[in-house]
Amino acid sequence: MRTATSCLLLIPAVLLPAARGWAQPPGVTPAARAELKPTWFNPQTPQPGQQYPLAVVLESGEFSGPAHTFWVSALFTRNYCQCIVKNTSEDWSALSVNDVLGLIDPLPGNVPADGKRLLLVADRKTGPLAMRMLDGFPDRIAGMVLVSARPVELTRDGQATVWLPRPAARGVPLWVVIGTSPGPAARTLKMWRTFESLMPADASITIDTRLGRGAEALLPDKAVAAWLEAVAAGKTPAEGPDAQARQHKQTYAAASQAIDRLLQKQGFAAPAGQKLIKSEGPMTVSIIAPQGWIRVPRIELPYNPRGTAIGDDGQSQDVPPNPFLQIGISPTPPDPKNPGPLHGLVLATEWRRSAGDLLAYSNKRLTSKGYIPFVVKQWTSSGWTIELSVIAYVYEERWQSWLALSAARAGTNDNPAAPMVMIFNRSDRPDANAMVAAMNRLRQTVQADWTGPLRPDAPTPIEE
Prior knowledge:
There is one protein chain. Residues 1-31 and 459-464 have low confidence and may be disordered. By secondary structure, this protein is of the alpha+beta class. The N and C termini lie far apart (61 Å). It has helices at 4-8, 66-77, 97-104, 127-136, 184-198, 224-232, 243-251, 253-263, 355-368, 432-445, and strands spanning 36-41, 52-58, 81-87, 113-122, 141-147, 152-154, 160-162, 174-179, 205-210, 272-280, 283-290, 293-295, 308-310, 316-318, 325-331, 342-350, 372-381, 384-395, 398-408, 417-425, 447-450. The protein has a seven-stranded mixed β-sheet with strand order 1-3-2-4-5-8-9, sandwiched between helices. Strands 12-15-16-20-19-18-17 form a seven-stranded antiparallel β-sheet, sandwiched between helices.
């Protein structure tokens, strides 16, 4: 019995003429000419008169070997037509989207493909070209797989920023394969987490993390098979597994279960301690801290929604914006220079949307700073939305994490100052009792008030 891979050898390949090279300015030594070499494959079981989605695999030299064999076989057995595109010069930056489309339009007569249903598969070198294809022709792209590719684009002023497809392209399903090893892979992974946080909530995005692997040609999780079948059928695929998220959540499984039980317990709160109050900008916030907890100003950031400050020279300068008034608190440490793992933030910000949206906004801000929140569970209670999450980050060349319990309540038109409470525990064995008791005491006593108005030069409200 032949395997799927051996059957591929029996399918005729159609080679099209190479794409025309780019003209070089006078006096410039020409680089190796970009020559695209397509190889075509038909589906495993084509039916007369039927068309099939076309997988366009942009394959650089580092994508050959096991990766090449895997994708050709996986696509063949799921009845995709295929066009494997190679570039003899390996300079993919010199190629345009039209160079690739020139291989597809018109299709070879013996390839039963639907040229308006393309699946793009790209790697680290070919990813930028695939992303430009998605932006340029979203109505033709049925799905896209990117392996170790960096989601980066250049702004008009030449600055590199996280790629964000134009609105018409944001409904296209994406499957991203990326390693988690600290270094280049982790930096790329954090960019993809930021990308995901900026996309619409209903976007179909799988970040398929390969634990401990680097920025190389990686094979995806086996669940990609069901994803490929859904894309071929024109359906929105279910999200695939995220091994990194699963790993971090399992680390805190016992503490998460204990927190879940304690949040259902009536009247469970820490004894009352000292009252703390702070006014800054247009808001005032006050709390009754848990007994034994004190204010820790060093973990507070100044309220600065505009992101500007006056330097020592008296000139205005840009600083990271912070739309939150903050009070930092912690149990009284035995040694102020070596505080314990438990601390909290009580915050207030201008917010007129839902409490859940405020927590989601907070998570986006964490992600943009390189901290990756994995939401474990959400609850609602007495107007509050409560969320338990694991926050992961790279420190000293390894991944670390802590547990965070957050709660938010929406502001109103009359009082747009919305309160939010966050309790963090960096211990390997978080104290669930201390976290929930502190959270409940703070939720019961926090008061956020709008004492504004903002200055005339203040920014548009952040939720807009």
